[in-house]
Amino acid sequence: MAKKILIITTLIFAIKINALSAEKLFNGKDLSGWDGNPDFWSVENGVIVGETTADKKTPGNTFLIWKGGEIGDFDLILKARVKGNNNSGIQYRSKVINAKSWSVGGYQMDMHPAPNYLGMLYEERGRGIIAQCGQTAVIDDKGKRSLKGNPDAKKKCDLSEWNEYSISASGNRLVHKVNGQVTVEIEDNEISKKSSKGILALQLHAGGAMRLEVKDIVLIKKKKESAKAREFLKDHNIVLINAAKENSVAPVKWIWNSKSARTETIYARRQWTLSSPLKSSKLSITCDNGFTAFVNGQKVGSGSQWETHYEFDIKKYLHNGDNVLAVQAHNEGQSGGLAAKIKLVAANGATRHIVSDNEWIVANKKAPGWMAPSVDTTGWKNAVVAGKMGDSPWGDVFSKKPGVQVAVAAKGAAQVHPKGFEVEKIYNVPKGEQGSWVSMAVDSKGRLYCGDQGGKGIFRITLSSEEPKIEKVPVPVSGAQGLLWAFDSLYVCTNGGKPGSGLYRITDSDGDDLLDKVQDIRRFAGGGEHGPHAVSLSPDGKHLYVLGGNHTAVPKPESSALKMNYAEDQLLPRMPDARGHARNIRAPGGWIARTDPEGKSFHLYSAGFRNQYDIAFNRDGEMFTFDSDMEWDSGTPWYRPTRIYHVTSGSEFGWRTGTGKFPEWYPDVLPPTLDIGPGCPTGVMSGLGSKFPAKYQDAIYAFDWTYGTIYAIHLDPDGSSYQAKKEEFVTGVPLNVTDGVIGKDGNMYFAVGGRGTQSALYRVKYSGSESTVAIKTRANSETKVIETRRSLEAFHGKEVQGSIEKIWPKLSHADRFVRYSARVALEHQPVVEWQEKALEEEDPQTLLSALLALSRQGDAALKEDILNALSMLQVSEMTESQKLEALRVMGLTFIRMGGPDEETAQEIAEAISPLYPASSDAMNRELVAMLVYLKAEDALAKTIPLMNQEAAGLEEIEFDDKLLARSGQYGKSFQNQKASNPQRQQIWYAYALKNVEEGWNQNLRKQFFGWFAKSRNFKGGASFGGFINNFRNESLSKIKDADVRAEMDSLSKKQIALVPEGFEGARILKVGAKPGMKFDIESLEAKAGEKIGIEFINNDPTGLMHNLAVCAPGSRQKVVASALTIGPKAIEQNFVPDIPEVIASTPQVAPGRKYVLYMVVPSASGNYPYVCTYPGHGQLMFGTLKVTN
């Protein structure tokens, strides 16, 4: 079945310009052969002149059209100069729009005074600016642009002097030059917009008075190039390639052996034939979840991150004759997909692409010689196409946009950054014998223990001044992800391996200093990278703490600090991960449990993590962990970066699958101590016991595997918790840090390895001049609030008579951690003993804390009582955090006790609707969810305008470029996301509104589904595009009318630029808001007919909604008055009256948001007022747009 590709190149001929092939288009005497408005065009002194004056204006752009007919491929050279405050251009491959008014549309080379517009390609009456000066552009068949170069590459040019302008058009390739210097290069493949032939014309621009002079116009028409052969052979792919341009590229397809989702390895091949030498050859490839690629039997490379693509130079592996690319591809459940593209460039420049498609062949088993060309492929079958590049769930992995490439840091040794420290590698692990180390412990004699992630076992390392002594522990235990030396034993927490996932205790049974006896303490259900992890000793030395990631079931604890009726607690239906990750995992997610040395009793201490690997305790005896992010979620509003948590008794951190993660403002979870950012958390350790300066003894160390970083986390007490700052302590490329300990010598020892990578052991020691005397515990006066919290934790997990009186005053404590601990303690007491007290409470904060507990633990019969108690709160006197808490209590009441009846729902909606939109994203997220849940009539009209408003600044966390450079594979995805700045708040509104079935009209639908088209510009993690597409699909499914559904489906799939077509180079005028209901800029200036964007930023500190409407001169009062009489549709119309005096307007812009109003300035000069039309604002909030010619 193997097919061959025979590449036959065309003969390339140089075009020689001479008197016979060149045509002069201007005779130097008159306008013979040209057609234009005689009021503006003439000939003076042997030069074509186009001129407007203050008294003789053109109402629109006018053109002098060459009457020589349409031309396709050509070279055009002319000389021109432009005088006056205006610009001009040369039209080519254009169309006459209106012969009577001499109007033309099409490609234009600009003669523009702005350096970045000089010589650019502009499409008159079409796509607007296509490429600016200094840019190269490739436009694909659907109109997607890939831009390279620097649009600010300034070409110094005095337009009032004679300059030479030249245009070269060959097929879909266009090149502009000014004075011999290339300004733009364009390859236009857009099927519906590109032009292959058309007329020539000279432009006289509307606007300011100007004079265009043109002479020496020379046209060279190009002949079509011939080919030696145009023959299609059976079972061969014959392609004609022109060296001047690349052949059209078929879309890359995602292929597999079937469309079923399962864990498997397959084998894929693509064979072709070369008949001429190559200049270069590049393979671009990726696979969900991993691949190894071979060319002609030789390994080219491999990859395990499908979210990016890999590029390999394969020229050295190729030869004339048959060649084959063979790929071993692996999938780990869900959708499998392999995508590849080979670019072959011949010695003469001819280019050919081979892409993954159903011409590839696949098999489930290796065949003899499967990596070699021209072998028997009996039993292989054609690949199944799972989708084209860009389709869900993978997205456009091969896309270069937004054009940000992560510079990968150079490989080098580990570096320790604070002064006075040294780091050295002390042992390189032989992987074949000792595996890849991921866990560490230190015994009472100072010997280290390290565990292989796989099946090689556990090793004891005796340190000395020479080579470390390595001994394998002689027990059948492997897969250790947690090691701890305590109670004269080695505790091992295994993840899979032998004898299976669980906690084991290994002891020396005969006193020969060799561990030989294995005690099975408790088995765990779960495994994989989110399985059981570390085991640690409590600060008092009496207990063990064991950790499990979110794929590990809670190990049936005998007691729990959390009430174990934890639930998903979602007000709106949760959507699972778009790629299926953890879709069946439920609350409480990852957990931490405490047990005794014998493992007889387990106590659930904390939960709600994603995949926390390890814990450590600071000098106050407080626990900290480093939880992982779900990098596939990055760019979404539910993405949570890797973070440091202060883990207290009964704490819950709100991990839920898919879109269901609890935000940190929910009162039923605790907030992170510090967000770290992208990463892969592994070990966590304390600096206590080290011979380091006090600052570093007091630090918690957090290990990031992906970016090769050990962070020193510096903690400052803040009530009963802490504020934290991070410092890069040790970094390296690569440095896959896994775990660490403080040795008996006071040095830090850490291991690198994991996932089968090369392992090594490192030591960090301090040799500086600062004191290394051991730090002391803090005085009681410094930990008073911590002790208050701990006194409440004594009630966790047990009923204690008389405890309610002690708990109750702390429900309103100013410290969130104390308040949380009090609420957890209250939940453990019999509800009948405190429910009446809760419902009758008058203090707002105490009431909220008590009602939160009641909504979680009370009987459903209490629902109406809880809602009545909430209704007594005075919203005007509440803080934002209290408002958020009240909304969460109401939501939990509905979730756990049942929704309200229709009348109650309407009453609540009417009560909270005036609060929306609010002045913060958090409030708006909770309000829109509640209003949608209650089926509020105005939820749509209020929310749709917010979906077109951007955050005033970057919505995403600021990613550290230097950090991302330490992992090019992962870093690229985050850099692309940062560059596209996905609007997370807009995405949340889409998530909420997909649940609305009633109240839509055509206008609202078009705006809503138009947003999905715009969202295609956003970049995020691997599931980002899939989530948004699933929102779209669910929204479409709620449209009953098939025609409307089809229309919205089509609209939502369009590629819409964030900047409207034709406004790419528009001047941006910024206007903000200030106290006193005023615009901060009360006067703007613009030229008649100019394209501008008015960027209105609602930075009003009072939190009011505002808009900006541009009105006809003298009409401000009429517009303001008309806004008051709109009626029921006022909200939907954004309080903008539908009258001709309103020229353009923004929607109502929420506080902290911005909206860019693109408009063409009116052609008539004058003072155009702009005003806020929100009721009551227009008499104070206005300004003037001064328009001049």
Description of the structure:
With about 1200 residues, the protein is α+β, with helices and mostly antiparallel strands. The chain has 6 domains: about 20-220, Exo-inulinase, domain 1 (Jelly Rolls, Sandwich), CATH 2.60.120; about 250-390, Sandwich (Jelly Rolls), CATH 2.60.120.260; about 415-560 and about 595-765, TolB, C-terminal domain (Neuraminidase); about 785-895, no CATH class; about 900-1060, no CATH class; about 1065-1189, Cupredoxins -  blue copper proteins (Immunoglobulin-like), CATH 2.60.40. About 15% of the residues lie in helices and about 35% in strands. The longest helix is centred in the C-terminal third of the chain and has 18 residues, at about 880-895. It starts with a strand and ends with a strand. Mean pLDDT is about 90; it is low at about 1-20, about 225-245 and about 400-410.
Helices and strands in order, then pairings?
Elements: E1 4-9, E2 22-24, E3 34-35, E4 41-44, E5 47-52, E6 62-66, E7 74-84, E8 88-98, E9 103-111, E10 121-124, E11 128-131, E12 135-139, E13 145-149, E14 163-170, E15 173-178, E16 181-188, E17 199-204, E18 210-221, E19 236-241, E20 253-256, E21 264-274, E22 278-288, E23 290-295, E24 298-303, E25 310-313, E26 321-331, E27 337-346, E28 351-355, E29 361-363, E30 381-382, E31 384-388, E32 412-416, E33 421-428, H1 431-434, E34 437-442, E35 448-452, E36 458-462, E37 469-472, E38 480-486, E39 489-494, E40 502-507, E41 517-523, E42 532-537, E43 544-548, E44 559-560, E45 590-595, E46 602-609, E47 615-617, E48 623-627, E49 642-647, E50 651-652, E51 674-677, E52 681-686, H2 694-697, E53 700-704, E54 709-718, E55 721-733, E56 737-742, E57 748-752, E58 760-766, H3 784-793, H4 803-807, H5 816-827, H6 835-840, H7 844-857, H8 863-871, H9 880-897, H10 902-912, H11 921-933, H12 939-943, E59 950-951, H13 961-964, H14 968-980, H15 984-993, H16 1002-1015, H17 1024-1037, H18 1042-1053, E60 1067-1074, E61 1078-1079, E62 1083-1087, ...
Parallel strand pairs: 1-19, 12-16, 44-46, 46-50, 60-63, 62-68
Antiparallel strand pairs: 2-18, 3-6, 4-5, 5-18, 6-17, 7-14, 7-18, 8-9, 8-17, 9-10, 10-11, 12-13, 14-15, 15-16, 20-31, 21-26, 21-29, 22-25, 22-27, 23-24, 23-26, 27-28, 29-30, 32-55, 33-58, 34-35, 35-36, 36-37, 38-39, 39-40, 40-41, 42-43, 43-45, 45-46, 47-48, 48-49, 49-51, 52-53, 53-54, 54-55, ...
Helix pairs in contact: 3-5, 5-7, 7-8, 7-9, 8-9, 9-11, 11-15, 15-17, 16-18
